[in-house]
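Subject: two folds for Thursday's group meeting

Dear M.,

Sorry for the delay on this. The cluster queue was jammed most of the week, so I only got both jobs back this morning. I'm pasting them in the order they finished. Each block is the input sequence followed by the predicted structure tokens. Could you check whether the formatting survives your parser before we put anything on slides? The first protein is the one we discussed after the seminar.
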Amino acid sequence: MKTDEREAEEAQKTAEYDAWFRQKVQEGLDSANAGRLIPAEEVEARAAAWRAETLRQLEAPGAAKAYDAWVRQKVQEALDSSDFLTDEEMKAEAAGWRLKARQRRAAEARRAADEAGLGKGS
């Protein structure tokens, strides 16, 4: 997948997530404004139960080995995916970043010179 396609896909995902998040926030605000709230004590009780269950699962026999196997599988899946850049793509992308950084610094220097009255038009 090319860098531009990856950036466009990432921008689309970000926009979709932002829309989803804003909708959820609005739903929460609407629910709270309608008086549908959960008392703090109930929230704390639910969180305590969740923490206890999580600890129980983590302390279960074989949990560490199962987690390690899961992590190894996910790492291998990531390595096998085509989402990684080739060396050439990484070098090209890095060169592009360096060029953009130089251009940004040059533009900032021109602006500073202009503001100080040292620009070409002065």
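Second protein, same layout:
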Amino acid sequence: MRKTKKALASLAIAGMALTIVPFNAFAESVVPTRLAGTTAAQTAVAIAEQTGWTGTAILAPSASYGMVDALTGGPLASYLKAPILLTGAGVLDADTKAELIKLEVKKVYVTSGTAVISQVVLNELTGMAITVVPLGGVDKYETSVNIAKRMVGVTKVAVANGLQDELSIAAIASAANQPILLTDKDIIPASVSAYLAENPGITTSDVIGGTGVISEAVKAMLPSATRHAGSTAYDTNNQVIKDFDSVLTYSNVYVANGRTGIDALAGAPLAAQTKSAIVLTDGTLPNVATFVRGELIGSSVVTALGGVAVVPEIVRSGVVTGEADLAEAINDLAVKVNGESILIKDYDERVAESKKIYEKQGMKFDTDQGEQALINIKSQLLDRMIEGKLMAQEVKNQNLDPEDSKVKKQEDVIKNSIGDETKFQDTLKQQGMTEPELKNFLSLYSKITADAKVSDSDVQAFYDRNNANYSQPESVTARHILLKTEDEAKAIILQLKAGADFIQLAKDKSIEAGAKESGGDLGTFTKGEMVPEFETAAFTQKVGTFSDVSIKTQFGFHVILVEAHTTAVVPDYFKVKAQVEQDALSQAKDAKFQTYFEDLREKAKVEYFTGYNPPA
């Protein structure tokens, strides 16, 4: 509505024809109670439609690993009057591309480097006659500075170190022409320090988050800094809304998921248009809902950013009423953990995601075996969600920061060991875990096991129990020719004795699947990997010889060629002591955390609703 009035006033003054007003100038004056699509990119498009802005856009990554960079783009989006649209890394999202065309965009500011939004995407934009302005820096700190440098007239900055804290201030900072700068907990990055030094007109700053994420030492180095913080990220969101209550209006209020964050990213400039707050939820009704309810007026609209999977309807409506209607929602509950709800729909969603991954790996759930496996998987997933709730509660109780740089490094190690981002996310889904839950686990594990130690005698005892793990076992490298009958095997042996080539015979005569390509190659194997009859023959046969009698197994009759035989090697204890000590310490930490968590689970109040009780 604001955009419409402004456009009409301009037309009246200029005496221009109504037909030249951009079609988006007359966007709906009342924002719907939910802006959502089936993907994050579609949700961003729905939000963009509400802004009424055309001609310029901000392009941010839809993947979680680029979101921190992108969140600092909210204030620039408001400054440029440019909606935030999303894309994947490798190709320009189809919905986003259609929206760029619809909004007649001629310039796009890209919040991340080509490691996050690829050159292929940038080339596609250029091919659409769109000017690309890259904003990505060498790290997230420099990116936040690059974004800030695009804004003029800046006298105040917000400083954050964590996804949810950026989300909490994004809309407020966007409305105030206030860039968001990123920092480490204990030191201001060089690029941020240089920006502040180059802009003496910046006289005040807002520090978002407690001393667990931004230290007092860093706060002291910022211009006239005021801290806005709570004991958790969601408490910080509560405090930010209360601290900035005097500049907020409540004709519109937005609710977004603080764990995924991506919808709040796109929603920040829309919320800034009406100086509205963004309330963050973890899927449950946040404490700030009661305060916000007291500020609403009769015509206020509370809008969820994203689908019901990220912002449940009972949470959105709970912000309107100030409390969740538990009587109505009781049928939506699977479990309550210390009073916090696990919703049936969230549980069903995790089951569906896990099933997809298992099915990709060949699991068939329409068989008797598959049906039993699904029962076990469902039980394990519900246990994992209960454990996730307990860990989230402990992280809050102990005032831990799951966005800490040490946690990020630990997560990166896990990602690298699994492979790429897609494999990492698939693994999480298969295990019934979300990325925030993994971060909660890592931060809690680090805290609980920080004082775990092992003595020299503990290390020696660990080695004595597990020395096989540090030894090179005896192994054989071999090929074989598999035949149906003993007579066929005897015929092969005669041909070999006459000088026939073993590999060619394996390709021509072996009934083993794949022998035509492999030439009967079995690679290198250790004891226990082959059936006993085959193993005994292979490990007693001389290197470079083929068996002069066939070996009968359940598979048929084998003729074996031994190509190499390596004896077992037990390394000197002191040569592997460093690795053994590390492994022994890991085991000690695991045992300590398991004891701690079992006690935590034992003391927890876990209420199962009908149909979700654990198996007897």
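Two things I noticed about the second structure. The chain has three domains: 21-324, 331-451+596-608, 472-566. The longest strand covers residues 556-566.

Cheers,
T.
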